[in-house]
Amino acid sequence: MIGLIIAGLAFALLFLFRILWKQNRALAELRDAVKLNQPYLREESIANYLPNWNGLVETINLQITENSALQQQHSGQLTQLEATLGNLREAVLIVDQANYIHLANRALREIFPASRNLVNLRLELIIRSSAFLDYVRATRAGQPLSRQEFEITDGAHTVWIEASGAPIASPDGKNAWALFVIHNLTTERKLERVRRDFVANASHELRTPLSIIKGYVETLVDGHDTMTFEERDKFLKTIQRHSDRLKAIIDDLLSLSRLESATPQLNLEAVNFAEFFGELADEYRHRESGAAHTITVAVPADFGAVNGDREKLTHVFGNLIENALKYTPKGSRIELGARALGGNEVELCVRDNGAGIPATDLPHIFERFYRVEKGRSRETGGTGLGLSIVKHIVQLHHGKVWAESSEGQGLAIFVSLPRSQKS
Ligand code: ADP
């Protein structure tokens, strides 16, 4: 009898345990279905032990279905918006309440190219500016804000943007999001900086000889009655040297400004480079400055002509020869070379065997007022503008200019030009 009771109890416990286990499993499956946003495929037998189970499952499945429909509608709306805004020149950004990006059109991706797909990334990872993040927060909160400019630096890379924003509701209407229209001001700001630096450099360059001239003139005026003829002569010669320098800087500045004007003219003609280089070499061999150097020409007999502005090309190669004369010791060699590249291209070169230029300076020598050795350049009447004028003229001819050097091995300046200009 006791044995029967124990067996009955054991059976009842086993039965209860089975029901509990089934309930637990059903609840876990239901939880997973909610997590995955997928309707729950119900296990009928559980309904016998859990009152209202079917009702609960139906309600949850209904919620899940509505939720996925909403999500689909939402991503459909964003895709549609993305397609509409994709080709806008203005950058458009939509962020949610937690600063996750929901829309970033192509123009925005071009401003912040670090990551190709910005959607679903946190804004902080893309736009590293606390000022901009404050602006996003205030916009989302509905504070009335005017458009604002931000300087965003990420490592060595800086961009300037102007943003205007508006709060918007999330597609399900439950959260506050924000939409921004962003203009990329980087090119303008960089140009402004270049212009500012240029004005500062030009003023400095002009002021130096001017102050020297002023000082000497004042001394001449004050010492008019007491100075010897030799002293006066020495002062006047110094004034003359610095006036020449002033004139050289102003002439180079005018050349640069003419080259940068909206419509610089090229007077194109066929320039035979064997003859052209030959004449230039002769001219400099006969100058006082060139007499102590060896100037050679290496142009293949069949090199032929290049379509270009003879006067401007004379300025380019004259300047390169003058530099080679100025910056190499007497007795150095200067070679004017030319070779045909494939297609329509030719490569021209002025090479010397002087001291060359250190690798750290090499990328900068075409910048305005950049000098490797300031003292030497001024001493030899250099303005620091010669190579930037060369670069402008070459670019006007749709060509490229670059320098190659190794210290102690001389400098070679290469100019590549199309043989015929489209103009
Ligand atoms: P500059 O009027 O001072 O000569 P450039 O723009 O013509 O200005 O040249 C820039 C700098 O590049 C010069 O100041 C000089 O330091 C360096 N440079 C140019 N040509 C040579 C060369 N052939 N050898 C060594 N250094 C050179």
Could you explain how this protein is built, in words?
The protein is elongated. With 423 residues, it is α+β, with helices and mostly antiparallel strands. The protein has eleven helices and twelve strands. Strands 2-1-5-4-3 form a five-stranded antiparallel β-sheet. A five-stranded mixed β-sheet has the order 7-9-10-12-11. Helix content is 49%, strand content 20%. It has four domains: 20-83; 86-184, PAS domain (Beta-Lactamase), CATH 3.30.450.20; 190-259, Orthogonal Bundle (Helix Hairpins); 268-418, 2-Layer Sandwich (Heat Shock Protein 90), CATH 3.30.565.10. Residues 323-324, 327, 352, 354, 357, 365, 370-373, 377, 382-387, 411 line the site of adenosine-5'-diphosphate.
Please mark out the parts with pLDDT under 50 across 5 or more consecutive residues, or reply none. none
**Named CATH architecture of the largest domain:** 2-Layer Sandwich
Going by helix content, strand content and strand pairing, the class is alpha+beta
Bound molecules: adenosine-5'-diphosphate
- The CATH superfamily of the largest domain is identified as Histidine kinase-like ATPase, C-terminal domain
SSE run:
HHEEHHHEEEHHEHEEHEEHHEE
Brief synopsis:
This protein has 423 residues and is of the alpha+beta class.
List keywords for this structure.
single chain; alpha+beta; Beta-Lactamase; Helix Hairpins; 4 domains; 5-stranded mixed beta sheet; binds adenosine-5'-diphosphate
